[in-house]
Write a structure and sequence with these properties.
Length: 410
């Protein structure tokens, strides 16, 4: 497939492969998925880069695959590409029951509703302090100053990570997802191994500290104090921590950036929000649908089964394109439009379904809600003043640069 082809209808259907990361970087991926939903929702691809796989693009088919972990296994990876043989990490998102359930249960109390209530005041205080320090009336990069900074502070809290080193967390997250498995061409495998080796060394040091401390409500302490996870091998320990970092980093960070893009590209919706702040919570769900922070998840068929009239053979790779399911007009009215008062705005596939549904979805929603409550209390507008620069990845739907100007309330 030639990634510079903007019109997917010029490509023979049997050669259509939506996995090229440059499509996502340029925003051309949506047209490819639109054709696949209409003409071949369960579409076989013989990809030169990722090997043969089934591309699943309709909302209900995605929900079916995601909800049937007995038919579609998450092992050994949830990304379309194969794991790096030089980084043999494991994490519970790429496991099946019962091991998945045991390891997920070990850390899920950290993002349970009761704990979120405890953290809300801290999150609001940090957001308020950060917004009060931002430059007003001059351009700056929203991704760097706001999205990364806020998610980094929350990650440091979730891990009880040394605050002075907190920027290592999103750096490790970016390294973990910047790989050929995510369609990132030219990723330096040697450098990734070295950097993630430093990550492992750092977390092993924290692990030893937590083993000698009373149990606390942070991910590392929970892992070392739960019988199901206390004796993990180092690479499995790091794999789970990287999973929790990526999960806490990408969904929230990229939705914070996408909210600015969405509102600026839909000025009527922006005005609607300015007129009625009670729409913030619903708007947050619409942002997460419209953006879809993680574009896909993959599975492996555990037995011969049928999906969308196609025979999926045991061992076949199946890729659920969340970013396509969220634009399925048979399920979502006017799915390409950003509508902040959309009915059933939380009915989307961004968080997945079934046993692998995003563990921290409520935390992500809460952080975005508080951010916009505090923004609207201070500013008339967060104005986008340049073209957003997107990440080159078929996995992470993110931004690297977002030039904005803040306009204070009169």
């Amino acid at each position: 497939m030639n990634a510079i082809v903007s019109d997917p209808y010029t490509i023979p259907l049997d050669q259509l492969d939506p996995s090229d990361a440059t499509l996502f970087e340029s925003g051309k991926h949506l047209a490819y998925f639109e054709r696949l939903r209409k003409e071949d929702p369960v579409h076989f691809v013989d990809s030169k880069e990722f090997g043969p796989y089934w591309s699943v693009t309709k909302f209900n088919d995605i929900v079916y695959v995601d909800s049937h972990h007995d038919l579609f296994s998450s092992e050994p990876s949830i990304m379309i590409g194969e794991p790096d043989p030089n980084l043999r990490t494991r994490s519970f998102i790429a496991m099946d029951p019962p091991l998945h359930d045991q390891q997920r249960a070990a850390v899920s109390p950290a993002v349970a509703p009761a704990q979120l209530h405890e953290w809300e005041a801290l999150i609001r205080s940090r957001i308020s302090d950060l917004l009060d320090e931002l430059p007003v009336g001059e351009s700056f990069n929203w991704v760097e100053k706001v999205s990364i900074e806020l998610t980094t502070m929350m990650l440091a809290t979730l891990f009880d990570f040394p605050f002075e080193d907190r920027h290592k967390l999103p750096y490790w997250s970016d390294v973990a997802t910047s790989s050929p498995a995510a369609g990132v061409k030219g990723a330096d495998a040697t450098a990734r191994v070295e950097i993630l080796g430093e990550c492992l060394e750092y977390f092993q040091r924290l692990r030893k500290e937590r083993e000698n401390q009373p149990p606390k409500m942070d991910f590392i302490s929970m892992l070392v104090n739960n019988p199901s996870t206390a004796n993990m091998e180092p690479m499995e320990f790091m794999g789970n921590l990287l999973l929790l970092i990526v999960g806490g980093n990408d969904t929230t960070r990229n939705s914070m950036s996408a909210s600015v893009v969405a509102l600026n590209s839909h000025p009527q919706q922006y005005q609607k929000l300015l007129d009625d702040h009670s729409l913030i919570s619903n708007m947050v769900s619409e942002v997460i649908r419209w953006q879809t922070p993680l574009a896909h998840m993959r599975r492996i068929a555990t037995q011969d089964t049928e999906l969308g009239g196609k025979l999926i053979r045991k061992g076949d790779k199946v890729v659920m394109w969340y970013v396509s399911g969220n634009r399925d007009d048979e399920i979502i009215d006017n799915p390409n439009d950003f509508i902040i008062d959309r009915k059933r705005a939380r009915h989307h596939v961004s968080f997945g379904f079934g046993i692998h549904r995003c563990m921290g979805n409520r935390l992500a929603e809460m952080q975005l809600r508080i951010l916009w409550e505090e923004l609207l209390a201070r500013f008339d507008k967060v104005e986008l003043v340049g073209k957003p620069k997107r990440v080159q990845s078929n996995f992470v739907m993110g931004f690297t640069d977002l030039p904005v100007v803040l306009h204070p309330r009169a």
